[in-house]
Amino acid sequence: MEKAEIGLIGLGTMGSNLALNIAEKGHRIAVFNRTPEKTDAFVANAGTLRDRLVPCKSLAELAEAIRPPRPVIIMVLAGQPVDDQIAALRGELAANDIIIDAGNANFHDTVRRFKELEGSGLTFIGMGVSGGEEGARHGPSIMVGGTEASWKRVEKVITAISAKFKGEPCAAWLGPDGAGHFVKTIHNGIEYADMQMIAEIYGVLRDGLGMGPKEIAPVFAGWNKGRLDSYLIEITAKALEADDPKTGRPVVDIILDRAGQKGTGKWSVIEAQQLGIPATAIEAAVAARVLSSLKSEREAAEKAYGKLSVTTFSGARDEVLKDLELALLAGKIAAYAQGFAVMSGASKEFNWNLPMPTIARIWRAGCIIRSQMLDTMAEAFGKGGAEVNLLMAPAFIDMMKQAHPSLRRVVARAAEAGLPVPALSSALAYFDAYRQGRGTSNLIQAQRDFFGAHGFERIDAAGAFHGPWGGTQG
Ligand SMILES: NC(=O)C1=CN([C@@H]2O[C@H](COP(=O)(O)OP(=O)(O)OC[C@H]3O[C@@H](n4cnc5c(N)ncnc54)[C@H](OP(=O)(O)O)[C@@H]3O)[C@@H](O)[C@H]2O)C=CC1
Ligand SMILES: O=C(CO)[C@H](O)[C@H](O)COP(=O)(O)O
């Protein structure tokens, strides 16, 4: 039988679609899944692509089915399952073969796996993939980490299956070992912030303005034609339009207000904290998901405290909607600025030399956070001016100057109405703190010196000083 050019392990949502994408681009692919019935069903339902798929019932069969040197993509749940698959594969592969972990790995695991495979003769690649089911099937955004030489070996197939933005592949080699998975993690952190801010605006429209899903949907659809044009706004409008077949009610009204998470958002926040880079909007979004899961506690608290009955969103509807649109724009810019700043910090810390313009470029299509604004970001990073912080790029200074008054009004009015907008308000506080030449940490310095003799710096002389605190220190 003709050998396959590539192999794939894990025929779940992402793996099955990625395999079909690879097959569609003309590559013969050997596939394996832990549960063999899924492999049979997958191949049986592959239609015209069936002839390019080689179903395998063991890893030995998979290795045998691929022409050496063998590239094998692992697309299983992140964590121990990836280690297990690598361990099992090592016995079946030979020098020069390539293992590509395409799941949402924690980049620390990826770095460890690189070390563990050193000297084995096998090549390892840690590859972040974004785009969900549709993206995997028709073109995801792909973030690759490993040696440049290993990227060259897989570049052709990876760029072929990736999304294209005006003909340019949304796939790139971003740096050594964990670089690709780190960038994917921060992509997801930004995704959390983006989704949370959209949900907060939905909350204002629903609870502050009393609008139903069918009234809110066209608002988002309209915004999707402007500067907020993005995949997440597009699917939000569509989700709000959909009806539940069982009850006939808008489907969002019958979905429980409790969102799960798999780890990438939390890892973004942990890494931001480790690197000492503020990522407040992402932190707020992760915390909001955790709070969402405390459903029964929230219900009890609502009984204990009662609902606020005031609504301060009663002005002219058009003006309020304009404010909400601009608030979302400003919040989104701040969240992206934080995400890029975290990547910049990691790039320095780990000597990755992450290419920010390339990252913005490969996020313009295929991935979940794709948006028109990413094209402007790619331009800003390309031209220079965004290296210190995206908020300092001229195009974004202009946008923020126009949009931050709306963010301010929305956050203030939401606070008065008792509507939680944690990601938007964190974004606003970040922006205000970032643009404040003289802040309030002079007092923090005084306090630290007062209780712990930590010393402080003066505005009028270099060096460390102590305050005249007398004998009252703690
Ligand atoms: N869904 C999405 O939108 C995206 C997901 N990802 C990432 O892609 C990876 C796969 O996700 P997804 O396809 O959604 O997941 P699914 O739950 O749809 O599929 C999981 C796959 O992993 C396999 N698997 C699970 N545990 C083991 C194990 N212990 N040993 C061997 N195989 C195992 C399953 O095999 P079996 O059929 O036998 O259970 C199945 O093939 C994850 O890392 C995920 O975070 C990345 C981008 C987007
Ligand atoms: O990587 C993805 C999208 O880019 C996956 O859909 C991921 O599962 C999203 O994260 P979470 O499940 O924590 O919401």
Automatic annotation (TrEMBL):
Catalytic EC class: oxidoreductase
One family name in Pfam for this protein: 6PGD
Enzyme Commission number, as recorded: 1.1.1.44
Transmembrane parts of this sequence: none
Gene Ontology MF terms in the entry: phosphogluconate dehydrogenase (decarboxylating) activity
Pathway(s) served: Carbohydrate degradation; pentose phosphate pathway; D-ribulose 5-phosphate from D-glucose 6-phosphate (oxidative stage): step 3/3
Superkingdom per UniProt: Bacteria
Coiled-coil parts of chain: none
Keywords, ordered alphabetically: Gluconate utilization, NADP, Oxidoreductase, Pentose shunt
Residues of the 6-phosphogluconate dehydrogenase C-terminal domain: 180-470
Signal peptide (UniProt feature, chain positions): none
Matches recorded under PROSITE patterns: 6PGD
InterPro entries the UniProt entry points to: 6-PGluconate_DH-like_C_sf (IPR008927), 6PGD_dom2 (IPR013328), 6PGDH_C (IPR006114), 6PGDH_Gnd/GntZ (IPR006113), 6PGDH_NADP-bd (IPR006115), 6PGdom_BS (IPR006184), NAD(P)-bd_dom_sf (IPR036291), Pgluconate_DH (IPR006183)
The keyword NADP is annotated on this UniProt entry: yes
Recorded catalytic activity of this chain's protein: 6-phospho-D-gluconate + NADP(+) = D-ribulose 5-phosphate + CO2 + NADPH
Family: Belongs to the 6-phosphogluconate dehydrogenase family.
Oligomer status and interactors: Homodimer.
Family matches, as PANTHER family: 6-PHOSPHOGLUCONATE DEHYDROGENASE
Function comment: Catalyzes the oxidative decarboxylation of 6-phosphogluconate to ribulose 5-phosphate and CO(2), with concomitant reduction of NADP to NADPH.
Protein name: 6-phosphogluconate dehydrogenase, decarboxylating
Native source organism of the sequence: Aquamicrobium soli
Lineage: Bacteria, Pseudomonadati, Pseudomonadota, Alphaproteobacteria, Hyphomicrobiales
Gene giving rise to this polypeptide: gndA
